[in-house]
Amino acid sequence: TAHAPTLAALARDVGLSPSRLRHLAMTQLGLPLSKYVLWRKLGLASRALAAGESVAEAAVAGGFTDQPHFTKSMRALIGLTPGAARKPLS
After folding, report:
1. DSSP 80
2. Which long-range contacts (CB under 8 A, 24 or more apart) does 7-15 make?
3. Contact, 39 vs 74, CB < 8 A?
4. What average pLDDT does range 47-73 have in this prediction?
5. Can you give the pLDDT at residue 10?
6. Where are the alpha helices (DSSP H) in the chain?
7. What is the pLDDT of residue 1?
8. Which of 4, 85, 76, 1 is nearest to 46 (CA)?
9. What is the C-alpha to C-alpha distance for residues 36 and 55, in angstroms, rounded to an integer?
């Protein structure tokens, strides 16, 4: 499976220092870059759940390292586990 690029790699790709990239993300997005990336991953995984994928498949689709990481992140940010969120998403 592919892994998410590091902050250093992203910064290098766009020709900025990591600190400048973090600053711009906070300025433009209104939240830390790491939080934005996590929300994007949750969105991808949630769409996979809504499409009928298993929790494990949704975790992979979202770019999470594993199913427990997806479950922990979803519970922390929206207060539901992927299993509990499946019904409202479908």
Report:
1. -
2. 7/33
3. no
4. 93
5. 86
6. 7-14, 18-29, 33-50, 55-62, 67-78, 82-89
7. 43
8. 85
9. 21
